[in-house]
Specification:
The protein is of the alpha+beta class and 193 residues long. It has one domain: Trna Endonuclease, Chain: A, domain 1 (3-Layer(aba) Sandwich). The protein is built from 5 helices and 10 strands. The strands form 3 sheets. A 6-stranded mixed beta sheet has the order 1-4-5-7-8-10, sandwiched between helices. The chain has a two-stranded antiparallel ribbon with strand order 2-3. The chain has a two-stranded antiparallel ribbon with strand order 6-9. It is globular, with a radius of gyration of 23 Å. Mean pLDDT is 84; it is low at 7-26.
Amino acid sequence: MNYPNGTKKNNLLVNHHENINYKNRGMTLESEINSSNEYYRTIDKAYIYKKPTPIKITKVDYPSRDKAVIKEAFFTIPSTTDYNGIYNSKYIDFEAKETKSTTSFTLNNIHPHQIKHLENISKHGGIAFIIVRFTTLNETYLLPSEKLMFFINNINRKSIPLNYFKENAYLLNDGYRPIIDYLKVVDNLIGGN
């Protein structure tokens, strides 16, 4: 093709898919929740944070004073859940998980001590839940701990079917600010709806 200024465009076909990295195209559930929590803090709506994983460092390499590198560490105690904080005078505690399954969420993804932790938080008046994203379906649900405990205690299955989420959980729609407005559902949980 000839352009008005005399330059010519090379008409060779180019494979535009070469060297394109599709890794991390979209935000993960965790990064979306972190972004939402940052937004909540910015507008002074809630103070909810990702809990750090408790580790004990046993070996550090000091190539220079300001460049320490952890070479060896181990988990000191099992962590509880991913997030906790305060909203509307209520303690909030929850776990966030993703699954590629299109039919169910395996309970192996949540450790027994995490389930017990969520149960205890709820029993003592806090708001406890899990957020589960079915990544292939692009559907994210908030399941209150009471509904989780009901399933575990009354239904003899190793995974929670998608239909249980559709019937007992809240579908979280994607938004702009915040990306995942899970506090709208928490308002319902606080109000008992």
